[in-house]
Write a structure and sequence with these properties.
Blueprint (H helix, E strand, L loop, with lengths): L1 H35 L3 E11 L11 E6 L17 E3 L2 E3 L2 E5 L2 E4 L8 E5 L6 E6 L6 E4 L3 E7 L6 E7 L4 E3 L5 E8 L1 E8 L5 H6 L2 E5 L3 E10 L20
Parallel strand pairs: 1-16, 5-11
Antiparallel strand pairs: 1-13, 2-12, 2-14, 3-4, 6-9, 7-8, 7-10, 10-11, 14-15
Bound molecules: copper (II) ion.
The site of copper (II) ion (CU) has 6 residues, from loops.
Length: 243
């Protein structure tokens, strides 16, 4: 009889212990979950153009958020790399924005050769005569704006924007910009547009506090005043030969 009572007590004790352990595990794991998911926000903005010389195309204006006071945590790049293709004697897309330290590939989709080069001090490169179907990857190791040209076709012009952050986006045709999954914190907003002076773009730079799940940066007016279009030189720094 006594032995039975002892056995039952023991059973009850272990059962309670098991429940306690399970409860503890449960509360720890939920704590971990709540700490491992920082609050991230969707950033919205609308860009518009002032003193625009060309059409009303509001696309390809770059916005990015650099974390203030700390280095940005940029995730390791996965494959396939973002591509800037040569297609129909054009670079597609015309503007490509990537985190610094990422590769960009330059596949030639045309049935004839191109030459892809950049005279930029940020990333100088020359892929040589570049046959149909070829591809070369280039590491965008430093932040900055990298114009990309073809030495054969003077009309071919594109830009790689290399930024010190993982939080960036380009505007669509209507000027809408959306940057997703931006962790709460303080950032510096930066803006780039092909037909705006560096001086006017610097004026658009400002501190931004991201908190909650949606942040609307409102309307951003990009001014084209003071910008004069120019024909870039070939890879030898000379004018293209007339055709
Ligand atoms: Cu070309």
């Amino acid at each position: 009889m006594d032995l039975d009572v002892q056995k039952t007590n023991k059973k009850m004790f272990f059962r309670r212990l098991l429940i306690l352990v399970l409860l503890l595990i449960g509360s720890f794991s939920s704590l971990q979950i709540s700490y491992s998911l920082p609050v991230a926000a969707k950033i919205e903005a609308t860009v518009s153009l002032v003193n625009a010389k060309k059409s009303n195309d509001l696309s390809n204006i770059a916005l990015w958020l650099e974390p203030s006071g700390s280095t940005a945590r940029i995730p390791k790049q996965s494959t396939p790399y973002p591509a800037m293709r040569q297609k129909g004697k054009k670079f597609v897309p015309k503007v490509l924005i990537v985190s610094s330290g990422y590769y960009v590939s330059f596949p030639n989709d045309d049935p004839f050769p191109h030459n892809v080069f950049s005279p930029s001090e940020v990333k100088k490169f020359d892929l040589g005569l570049y046959q149909a179907g070829e591809n070369v990857d280039q590491l965008m190791n430093r932040p900055g704006v990298i114009p990309v040209y073809c030495n054969i076709h003077p009309q071919m012009k594109a830009f790689v924007i290399s930024v010190k952050t993982a939080y960036y986006a380009l505007s669509d045709d209507s000027g809408k910009v959306e940057i997703n999954n931006v962790p709460n914190g303080k950032y510096t907003l930066k803006v780039w547009h092909e037909r705006a002076t560096t001086e006017s773009l610097n004026k658009l730079s400002r501190e931004v506090t991201v908190s909650g799940s949606t942040v609307n940066l409102g309307s951003i007016q990009v001014d084209e005043a003071g910008f004069s279009p120019f024909q870039h030189k070939n890879k030898d720094g000379k004018d293209y030969a007339p055709k």
